[in-house]
Specification:
The complex is a heterodimer. By secondary structure, chain A is α/β, with parallel strands linked by helices. Chain A has two domains: about 1-10 and about 255-375, Aspartate Aminotransferase, domain 1; about 15-250, Type I PLP-dependent aspartate aminotransferase-like (Major domain) (Aspartate Aminotransferase, domain 2, 3-Layer(aba) Sandwich). Chain A is about 40% helix and about 15% strand. Chain A is built from eleven helices and 13 strands. In chain A, helix 7 crosses helix 11. In chain B, helix 7 (about 245-255) runs antiparallel to helix 8 (about 260-280) and helix 8 crosses helix 9. Chain B is of the alpha/beta class. The longest helix of chain B is centred in the first third of the chain and has 20 residues, at about 20-40. Chain B has helices at about 20-40, 65-70, 85-100, 120-135, 190-200, 220-235, 245-255, 260-280, 300-305, 320-330, 335-340, 360-365, 370-380; strands at about 5-10, 45, 50-55, 75-80, 105-110, 140, 150-155, 160-165, 165-170, 180-185, 205-210, 235-245, 285, 315, 385-390. Chain B is built from 13 helices and 15 strands. The chains are: A alpha/beta, B alpha/beta.
Chain lengths: ~375, ~400
């Protein structure tokens, strides 16, 4: 079986499993307990925090462990909005955000916040000038994703950050779920205030992630309780998950540059081969520039994405339609719609997503099966 | 490209005949520090009043933090080396100038000529090199008194060394040149700073902690270990002796006059510390005391406490204000650990009204109620020693 749905989730790295198994067995203490077992767990928790902080090149105190991407986005957006609403109630985001961001903004609209949803071009890119002209006196937060989960577009975060540096009272949140440890990132240099990371997208466990919160920012917690995670995220810490997550972060960061180079070549190779076999294939999103080499979104005119996914599954190749989160509904993906992709192409789109394990042979197999399925169905 | 890092050791140059021993020690310490960071041994060359670290194509920046942590280093600079030829020197000087960020607008050139065989004298070389840079960089001015950048050229026997940056170390003397002392490490803000300042003067330290389990928690011990880890960053590793102190504190509080508890407790600490210091061949005790900070640190108290030992007691912070101590603690990264809110041996068994002017006679009288020698001996014998290393690898073996 060939698993090419790594943007939905990834298999857990064997070393991560080893760490988690060991922690589950040995370090079951509650980090808040006073005794030896508690102290051990607390130490492991803080060591994990340090490891994650190192991969982002930030201070240990700036890392909050969460249950994953959705919680991180919610905590960042609602946490800023409710804490700083006396400064203003305007938020800027984009039309292609993950539902965790989009729905958090929609939620805030019910509380009197107004939200600007920036449009994107055909490649899925935001125009930094558009951001600049959308800024108002009452803008308190800009939330833009690093890498789009459906088409892989990398937003010009550095340029957006440069614009926002002139507005020190506006916070800049970046949803880094698909970008972290995969595409280049300079948190501090680019002026990012909050950055969401998820464990299961980088071969870590599900149900754990982190939010980077720049020193000096006071979020309003979304969870009330015992005051864990510096009061930002109450609830007994998921120590085995967090240790496994930190291990995954460490591995992912170590191999990120090599993978970037390897997958950039493989993605290009895949596109060329697909075009060779089927000249009608459409690449949704950028072909080479401003795109994550981990994601490839394509459409075959005349075929519905869902049918292609099932056809490929019969051939033991696992991919997704547009996005796992919208694949159960017969509506076209809002992301593709925002990019101005026509309805038929959008309905036909599938997302192929790679990982550090993807090899050249896998691309060959995928292209081969793909053309077999297309020939049979068309 | 930078070829070397030039390392200056200032004060050491004054040490006469012993100088070579000091420099050799410093070289060894630099090697150990770099090894501690990167598990690699750098190539170091000693030369008249300077040490050169050969970069062999590596970026100089990676050595900045390790070098800044070596006591005895006054400052250091990444340098370019050029052959002893005016044209080569000018080119290298220009290259160095151009590598600076931010496009400086004013500069000056300063030439030193320890190699007196070099034909061009310093003032003339200075003018020529300056003129060359001026000619090749647009919108640049010479400012002899207040330049943004000073281009230094040292004409030495084996070549010309060119640099503009100067990074400051902590100064002091190389560790291991001053013998060993035993630090009383409580977990508070002062004692780690006192230890750091002592190390800075070349004295190796071991730490002693009084542990009052169950009155103080596992976390209080953890805190001490973490503090020792920070100190170990400067010396590679540090021995921490954990003295079980509960029994003594219980005996004091059960038998002695309450207002004297602290004084008597401190006298016990010094007795135990002296004994462990002798075992470890340490020649002095180090404390974080500062006059008048608490009841046990008034002159009267120190007089009454100090009576139990003949060993020198080094008190680097004795005249410092709390603010100054806190600032240093922040600088050396012990502050955040020290303010963790766990009780230590000095905060349990607190009398309601401690004496600020304890009388020696009274101490002697009160101590007759205790089996002093027995208690001390027992505490010393049950002392546990942990070796704390600086390397930050996690102890779980996961990462």
């Amino acid at each position: 079986m060939l698993y090419l749905d790594n943007s939905a989730t990834t298999p857990v790295h064997p070393e991560v499993i080893k760490v988690m198994e060991d922690v589950l067995k040995k370090h079951y203490g509650n980090p808040s307990s006073l005794h030896q077992k508690g102290v051990e767990s607390e130490k492991l928790l803080e060591t994990s925090r340090k490891i994650v902080a190192q991969t982002l090149e930030v201070d240990k105190e700036e890392i909050v462990f969460t249950s994953g991407g959705t919680e991180g986005d919610n905590l960042a957006i609602k946490g800023i909005a409710f804490r700083y609403q006396n400064r203003g109630k305007h938020i800027i985001t984009s039309q292609i955000e993950h539902p965790a961001v989009k729905e958090s903004c929609r939620f805030l609209e019910q509380f009197g916040f107004s939200v600007t949803y920036l449009p994107v071009d055909k490649q899925g890119l935001i125009d930094p000038q558009m951001l600049k002209s959308s800024i108002r006196d009452d803008t308190i937060l800009v939330s833009i994703m690093h890498v789009n989960n459906e088409v892989g577009t990398i937003q010009p975060i550095q340029d957006l950050g440069a614009i926002l540096k002139e507005y020190p009272r506006i916070f800049f949140h970046v949803d880094g779920v698909q970008g972290y440890a995969k595409v280049p990132l300079k948190l501090k240099e680019w002026g990012i205030d909050l950055y969401t990371v998820s464990g299961h997208k980088i071969n870590g466990p599900k149900g754990v992630g982190a939010l980077y919160v720049r020193n000096g920012i006071a979020l309003l917690p979304q969870m009330s309780g015992g005051g864990q995670e510096g009061g930002l995220r109450s609830g007994t810490e998921n120590v085995p998950g967090i240790a496994g997550f930190a291990k995954a972060c460490q591995i992912a960061r170590e191999i990120s540059v090599i993978n970037w180079e390897k997958l950039s070549k493989l993605r290009k190779y895949c596109i060329n081969m697909l075009k060779e076999k089927n000249p009608a294939v459409i690449i949704n999103g950028p072909e080479e520039e401003h795109v994550s080499p981990y994601i490839l979104n394509i459409s075959i005119p005349g075929l519905r994405g869902e049918v292609l996914v099932h056809g490929l599954e019969k051939e033991e190749v696992l991919v997704s339609t547009g996005s796992a989160c919208s694949s159960k509904k017969d509506i076209i993906s809002p992301v593709l719609q925002a990019m101005g992709i026509d309805r038929e192409t959008a309905l036909g789109s599938i997302r192929v997503s790679f990982s550090y394990q993807t090899k050249e042979e896998d691309i060959l197999i995928f292209v081969d099966k793909m053309s077999r399925v297309v020939n049979r169905l068309l | 490209m930078y070829d070397h890092i030039l390392i200056r050791y200032g004060e050491l140059a004054l040490k006469g005949r012993n100088q070579m021993d000091f420099v050799r020690r410093l070289v060894k310490n630099i090697k150990q520090m770099v090894y501690q960071y990167y598990q690699e041994s750098p190539v170091l060359e000693m030369e008249k009043g300077r040490i050169f670290l050969k970069l062999n194509g590596q970026e100089p920046q990676k050595y900045y933090e390790p070098l800044a942590n070596v006591f005895g280093i006054l400052s250091f600079s990444p340098v370019r080396k050029a052959e002893l030829d005016m044209d080569q020197i000018k080119k290298a000087a220009l290259e160095e100038f151009r590598s600076l960020p931010g496009g400086p607008k004013t500069f000056r050139t300063t030439v030193r000529r320890p190699n007196k065989r070099f034909p061009v004298k310093s003032p003339q070389a200075q003018r020529e090199i300056g003129a060359y840079i001026l000619k090749n960089v647009p919108n640049l001015k010479v400012d002899l008194h207040n330049p943004e950048v000073e281009v230094f050229v040292e004409l030495r026997d084996d070549g010309a060394y060119i640099y503009t940056q100067k990074i400051y170390g902590h100064g002091g003397l190389p560790l291991g040149t001053g013998g060993k002392a035993l630090l009383l490490l409580s977990g508070g803000i002062d004692s780690p700073v006192a230890g750091w300042l002592t190390m800075k003067r070349g004295i190796e330290i071991e730490a002693l902690h009084f542990y009052s389990y169950p009155y103080t928690s596992e976390r209080a011990k953890e805190k001490v270990v973490d503090l020792a880890k920070v100190l170990a960053k400067y010396c590679g590793q540090i021995n921490v002796h954990i003295v079980p102190f509960t029994k003594i504190q219980e005996a004091i509080s059960a038998n002695c006059y309450e207002s004297l508890w602290i004084t008597i407790m401190r006298r016990f600490m010094f007795r135990i510390a002296e004994r462990i210091a002798r075992r470890r061949e340490a020649l002095a005790l180090v404390t974080g005391e500062s006059i008048g900070q608490v009841a046990s640190q008034t002159l009267d108290s120190m007089y009454a406490i100090n009576e139990v030992t003949n060993m020198p007691v080094i008190r680097p912070l004795i005249t410092s204000d709390k603010e100054e101590i806190m600032e240093l603690a922040r600088k050396i990264d012990t502050y955040d650990i020290s303010i963790r809110p766990y009780a230590d041996c000095c905060t349990v068994f607190l009398p309601r009204e401690p004496k600020t002017k304890p009388k020696l006679v009274l101490c002697h009288k009160e101590e007759t109620k205790l089996k002093v020698e027995e208690l001390v001996e027992e505490a010393v014998n049950n002392t546990e020693t942990i070796l704390i290393k600086a390397d930050e690898k996690d102890e779980f073996g996961y990462f």
